[in-house]
């Protein structure tokens, strides 16, 4: 039997040729059938391969879908987080704006305070300069007063020394004046006594004494005596009252 299940028989030559022809036909048919089967198998293989590829693509698409879904969820979470952060950032911006306004207000108050302090410092500096000028004037006046005081003390010492000297001179002058007064009184008294003695002399006494008034009359003697008395009184020292 061949592969088609036909058992060969021993026939004549015609039959052999027919058999050969049948076999050829059968073989052709089988070959044709084999080719069809091969094509079907190839199509089946290709279909299976396409199916597998489609399944793989489907699985890949499912994976991509899952990944995209996961990514979308991630993006959604990130978006929600970003929105929350944006809201928080907006609140933070508002807070920062409020803080900025407060800081600007504080800075303005600080600037005004600094300006006031600067003005006050300038005023105090002006007062200090005036006080220093007054102090310098006071020092100059004090030095001048000290100089005047030293000069006054020197002059006072000189006056004291002069007074002491004058007192000593006055004391000596007083003593000398007293002595001169005493001598003057004594001289005046002596002159008066001499004048009285002269007046009481007679002409004979004058001639006996060889006086230079010899030959003068009594009147002339009296006149001369008065003149001498006047001269003595003129030169008599009288203490001032």
Folded structure, characterized:
The protein is mainly α and 241 residues long. The chain has a domain at 201-241. The chain contains three helices and no strands. The protein has helices spanning 13-199, 203-208, 218-234. α1 runs antiparallel to α3. 0% of the residues are buried. Mean pLDDT is 74; it is low at 1-11.
Short descriptors:
single chain; 3 helices; 241 residues; mainly alpha
Biggest sheet overview:
none
Shape: rod-shaped
Separate helix tally = 3
What's the rounded overall pLDDT mean? 74
Low-confidence stretches: 1-11
Q: Tell me the strand percentage band.
A: under 5%
Main structural class: mainly alpha
Cα Rg: 86 Å
Order of helices and strands: HHH
Total beta strands:
0
Helix content: over 70%
What gap, in angstroms, lies between the N and C termini? 209 Å
In short:
This protein is mainly alpha-helical and 241 residues long. Helices cover 87% and strands 0% of the residues.
Tell me the layout of helices and strands.
Elements: H1 13-199, H2 203-208, H3 218-234
């Amino acid at each position: 039997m061949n592969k088609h299940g036909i058992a060969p028989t021993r026939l004549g030559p015609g039959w052999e040729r027919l058999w050969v022809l049948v076999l050829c036909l059968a073989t052709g048919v089988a070959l044709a059938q084999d080719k069809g089967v091969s094509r079907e198998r190839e199509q089946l293989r290709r279909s299976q391969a396409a199916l597998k590829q489609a399944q793989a693509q489907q699985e890949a698409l499912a994976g991509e879908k899952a990944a995209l879904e996961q990514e979308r969820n991630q993006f959604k979470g990130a978006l929600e987080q970003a929105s929350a952060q944006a809201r928080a950032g907006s609140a933070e911006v508002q807070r920062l704006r409020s803080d900025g306004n407060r800081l600007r207000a504080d800075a303005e108050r600080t600037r005004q305070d600094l300006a006031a302090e600067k003005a006050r410092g300038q005023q105090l500096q002006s007062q200090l300069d005036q006080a220093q000028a007054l102090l310098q004037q006071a020092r100059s006046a004090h030095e001048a007063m000290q100089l005047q005081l030293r000069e006054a003390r020197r002059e006072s010492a000189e006056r004291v020394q002069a007074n002491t000297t004058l007192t000593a001179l006055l004391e000596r002058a007083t003593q000398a004046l007293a002595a001169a007064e005493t001598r003057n009184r004594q001289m005046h008294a002596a002159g008066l006594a001499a004048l009285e003695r002269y007046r009481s002399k007679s002409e004979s006494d004058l001639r006996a004494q060889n006086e230079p008034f010899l030959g003068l009359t009594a009147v002339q003697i009296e006149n001369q005596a008065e003149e001498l008395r006047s001269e003595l009184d003129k030169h008599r020292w009288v203490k001032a009252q």
